[in-house]
């Protein structure tokens, strides 16, 4: 089993997840909160539903994550002028600063994860991963 590509990818994914979770936790964040901040930074303000889609998170995880980020002043919620039942979430300047700190943490984890690889091997790995992600025809989440 340990020679199966899928098993090895799964093991590496688990290792990466543990490293990221540990380092984000040391900064007082979790992966959901990081993903929400990054999604807001990448594409701007959004409704909670849209933000969840961007970050690849379940609705309940989005709501809870936004609640905690709002309590810390990292995001603000405001009513959507087009639909008062919906909230628009916006990143604050404090949120931008927090995200910059988290990006340093995530970059270090990325570097630690592939430390055994040369720069050339890292580029090659990323090319292979992109090729696999783009060419995989089976997506159990599609539907």
Question: Which key terms come to mind for this protein?
Answer:
143 residues, mainly alpha, Arc Repressor Mutant, subunit A, three-stranded antiparallel β-sheet
The top level CATH class name: Mainly Alpha
CATH homologous superfamily descriptor: Winged helix-like DNA-binding domain superfamily/Winged helix DNA-binding domain
What is the succession of H and E elements? Answer: HHEHHEEHH
- How many domains? 1
> How would you describe the shape?
globular
Counted by DSSP, the helix tally is 6
CATH architecture: Orthogonal Bundle
What is the gyration radius calculated from CA atoms?
18 Å
Largest sheet: 3 strands, antiparallel
* Unreliable spans: none
Q: Strands across the major sheet, in which order? A: 1-3-2
CATH topology: Arc Repressor Mutant, subunit A
How far the N terminus sits from the C terminus, by CA atoms, comes to 29 Å
How would the blueprint of this fold be written?
Layout: H1 5-26, H2 31-43, E1 46-47, H3 48-55, H4 59-71, E2 75-80, E3 83-91, H5 93-113, H6 119-135
Antiparallel strand pairs: 1-3, 2-3
Helix pairs in contact: 1-5, 2-3, 2-5, 3-4
Would you give an account of this structure?
The protein is mostly helical and 143 residues long. The protein has a single domain, classed as Winged helix-like DNA-binding domain superfamily/Winged helix DNA-binding domain (Arc Repressor Mutant, subunit A), CATH 1.10.10.10. Helices cover 66% and strands 12% of the residues. The protein has a three-stranded antiparallel β-sheet. The relative contact order is 0.12.
């Amino acid at each position: 089993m340990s020679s199966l590509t899928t098993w090895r990818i799964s093991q590496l994914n688990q290792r990466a997840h543990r490293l990221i979770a540990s380092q984000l936790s040391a900064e007082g964040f979790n992966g959901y909160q990081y993903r929400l901040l990054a999604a807001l930074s990448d594409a701007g303000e959004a409704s909670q539903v849209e933000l969840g889609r961007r970050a690849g998170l379940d609705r309940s995880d989005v709501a809870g994550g936004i609640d905690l980020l709002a309590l810390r002043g990292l995001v603000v919620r405001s009513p959507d002028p087009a639909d008062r039942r919906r909230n628009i979430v916006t990143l604050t300047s404090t949120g931008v600063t927090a995200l910059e700190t988290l990006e340093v943490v995530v970059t270090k984890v990325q570097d630690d994860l592939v430390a055994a690889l040369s720069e050339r091997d890292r580029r090659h790995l990323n090319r292979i991963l992109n090729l696999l992600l783009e060419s995989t025809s089976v997506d159990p989440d599609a539907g």
